[in-house]
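hiii so my PI (J.) wants the whole complex modelled not just the main chain, which honestly fair. so below is everything: two entries, each one labled with what it is. i double checked the lines twice but i was tired so who knows lol
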Amino acid sequence: MPSTQTLAPLACDSPVKIVATRDAYGSALLELGAKRDDIVVLDADLSGSTKTKAFSQAYPARFFNQGVAEANMMGTAAGMASMGYTVFASSFAMFAAGKPWEQIRQSICVPELNVKICATHAGLTVGEDGKSHQMLEDITLMRVIPQMRVIVPADAVEAAAAVRAVAETDGPFYVRLSRASTPVIFAEDYKFELGKGAILREGTDLCIAACGVCVAPALQAAEELAKSGVEARVINLATIDPIDRDLILDSAERCGAILTVEEHQIRGGLGDAVAQVVVHGKPVPMQMLGMDNAFGQSGTADELLAHYGLDAPAIVARSQELMQRKA
Amino acid sequence: MVLADQAILEIRQTANQVRKDVLRMVNAATCGHPGGPLGMADFMTTLFLQHFNLTPETLHNEDRDRLVLGNGHTCAGYYALLAAKGILPREELMTFRKFGARLQGHPHRNADMGIDFSTGSLGNSLSVAVGMAMGARLSGYENRIFSISSDGESQEGQIWEAAMSAAHYQLGNLTAVVDFNNVQIDGHMRDVMNVRDLKLKYEAFGWHAMDVDGHDVLAVHDALEAANAVYEKPSAIICHTLIGKGVSFMEDQPGWHGVAPNDEQLALALAELEAAPE
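here's the output for the full assembly
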């Protein structure tokens, strides 16, 4: 089948630029604040870390610190949204998705309000803070709620584009952002589209589907696999809900096997979302990389990704195993 | 503004009608919560007829008042008042809790019905009202935001997060009305989990707070006026009420929190309300 898909434009900087997606969020918010009076921002005593502080300094009348009270923050966000505002609410992912889950469901998603939860410090790459702060269940918790849409940007370029996109699109969103500085993958002319995945590398032997900080190691792994003659298609599935069914089914058809990679519990995360499409549309062997029903621990981001099998060498090894299962 | 005798009479008559509507609605649904709305009927009717400026004409005005019914299970009374104000057709009341009806078992936000927020999960309401009050002030509106909650709902920690935030942001446009009837599902509130003195608690959080007899229409009216006169802080009105008020066999009975009267009980209750002095 001839490819009708086009490759996303990738950055070719040397040396590679390293930026955290939370920094891109802070900058994008500042730009949006200048353009739109209806944008307000809430934060739960973490504005320095979530990077909403720049907005708070530029637009103090439209920034409301909520103190360490995340349940109230989500309800307040809903109330402001019901008065016509586009509300961004930020905290660490653990406290933005975990603690106020019920408020998000009842007060934001049931009434379908215009609240954008931008949660930073998600996943293992929080690092040294350890398991209490390593949110590994938020994709599951958010994608299961009707009306909620979930985006996990792969780099700073995509994060900024995603923040602009959610500001322009009515309804609830959860944007998962990282603390750690990670490689910039996309070129500046990359066009982010809600609900659409992006092909970063073409190949027909297997498909590696990743999101967030796991996209860069997935690309490295694909280059490594090519040295042994295995050509992997690499896709970035930033929008986990609604997932890009067409791209997943096309990848299953073309490659015959799919490996998913995420810094999140396997149960309910990206891998599950992909599997739900695959089993209904085009069953092929799959392998899901992520946290296998475990909590994390303290360490550097790189140490943790390596320990839990989410770095490039682990992706190479698991890809080779998956190739064996491809009949 | 002092209430004219005619206005007081209208409130009492409407409250009596609300009680009858609630009983008929819950009976027809064969399930629901009659006790709360009977107890709240006097202060809710005072609020709806004299203060909350929702009318068919203001329904879609962005700067009209807002109301969040935190104890959403008491919505039979809320719907009856929306009908009394001409927002809902009266005949729709009997669709309450039925499949396909707009009158859901707990309120769902609907701009055409004047229902400003979806509620039902206790504890979430005051935060939403705080957000509305912040949004209203940022927009330069001079409207009022009313939050209705209960003593039982005050056991939820989020209420106190919201109370802290409302005082911090000096939300003078926010009035929290609390139905204090000392009854919750598992029994009397003082036995299940005593919230004690809510007026003192709200004052300690930085609010202007008042205790009133929730069945004294004039006292409730005065408290709502006093709340509106305080600009620098939010106001809490703790309305002390009797659950099931107006129907002798329901008064102060925790069992009538969430049980529908059968046809015989309905007839007895309606007869008592018909005979009630105005």
